[in-house]
Amino acid sequence: MKVTVVGTGYVGLVSGACLADVGNEVLCLDVDPEKIRILEEGGLPIHEPGLLEIVHRNVQTGRLFFTTDIERAARHGTVQFIAVGTPPDEDGSADLQYVLAAARNIGRYMDGYRAVVDKSTVPVGTGDKVRAAIAEELAARGKEIDFAVVSNPEFLKEGAAVEDFMRPDRIIVGTEDEQAIRLMRELYAPFQRNHDRLLVIDTRSAELTKYAANAMLATRISFMNELANLAETLGADIELVRRGIGSDPRIGWDFLYAGCGYGGSCFPKDVKALIRTGHETNHDLLVLRAVEEVNDRQKRRLVDKVAARFGDRLDGLRFALWGLVFKPNTDDMREAPSRVIIDELSRRGANVTAYDPVAIDEARRVFADRYPGLNYVTRPMDAVLGADALIIVTEWKELRSPDFDFIRTALKQPVIFDGRNLYDPATMRLYGIEYHGMGRC
Questions:
Q1: Is 260 one of the annotated active-site residues of the chain?
Q2: Catalytic residue, candidates 28, 260, 266, 441
Q3: For the segment 26-56, what is each residue's pLDDT rounded down to a tens digit?
Q4: Is 125 in contact with 158 (CB distance < 8 Å)?
Q5: Residue among 263, 329, 333, 254 at smallest CA distance from 295
Q6: 416, 423 contact by CB (below 8 A)
Q7: Where are the beta strands (DSSP E) in 168-211?
Q8: 2 - beta bridge partners?
Q9: How far is CA 155 from the centre of its chain?
Q10: What is the mean pLDDT of residues 97-108?
Q11: Residue 288: helix, strand or coil by DSSP?
Q12: Angle, nearest 10°, between helix axes 286-298 and 267-280?
């Protein structure tokens, strides 16, 4: 099948590459010529494990192409995926300008039936706006061409996006158009050979499903962080509490880890957008407002612990910081706790030496010259040497079992602030390390 994907970010590039990998002829469009240049030269504009090999393989076999030519893209695919950004507006609502621009471009150049698929995370009712934008462009051309609008929300985890696309736990298709349903079933058939995972529902329900899923996961994270803070006061251990409640099949194990807050391109934005949707329809989503407030506070929790140990002013102190991205296996620093932590430490006068296995270049771009006391190293132990304490922000696998004897002797004071509860407090005591976790005892 001929497929067009508009947007070459995490969702668009992963979707396009994986669809090409099962035999489709996929053309990926982006209006950013720099992204297309990188892709055509064999690179990737994002970091995603396993993606580069799939892209290279399908470019070489002639199934995956890249372009900035809008007309070519609109004429290529019977199925047109819109996978562009929906950044939050100042009021928290999703900015649909890029989605609607993509829709208008499709309407301006399409030359036959199109199933226009919203892959971007969009508010309920966006399908109607996309439909109206395409119809308006067709009317301006004096053309009557059939098309359908489909909501097909993505459920890809950054760092595991390829695996999630290739082996989905569910595929949501929101449309009432029979031809579009047939096309979507055909397109996704290779990804669900052992049993049918495709659920056909109405467009508005599909749009809300994506927001509901991310809001639920964010809620679990904030709930556990609230309990972790309470556990510290009560002398309980949140890790033992996690095991106790996670073993209940009604609750399960996923997203029950206490930490220093969630970040990334999805949870913060989607929680804000859903709160805004509620406001616009006179529904005050109290739970989600609390989820957001808890998360904002939790990102500062580690700095509060540092201040409690070293004092409110941190002038003359230097802290090693491990992990800059919001989660492992990505270079994404959007809404990452590290941004808040570095800002707070710098505001209090501290210097920071940061390590991250993949995101140093991204950090240099994000922070630029904002913090004169911020430096980067390419090996984790180089950050520790001579630092006053170690702060852990991202749970990279390579940080799970470091040389604790070296850490104890390399630090001026053997103190670890662990924002991801990577280490066991009892083990740290045996090594002679003063350990501050999140809800641990």
A1: no
A2: 266
A3: 999 999 999 999 999 999 999 999 999 999 9
A4: no
A5: 263
A6: yes
A7: 171-174, 198-201
A8: 25
A9: 10
A10: 97
A11: helix
A12: 150
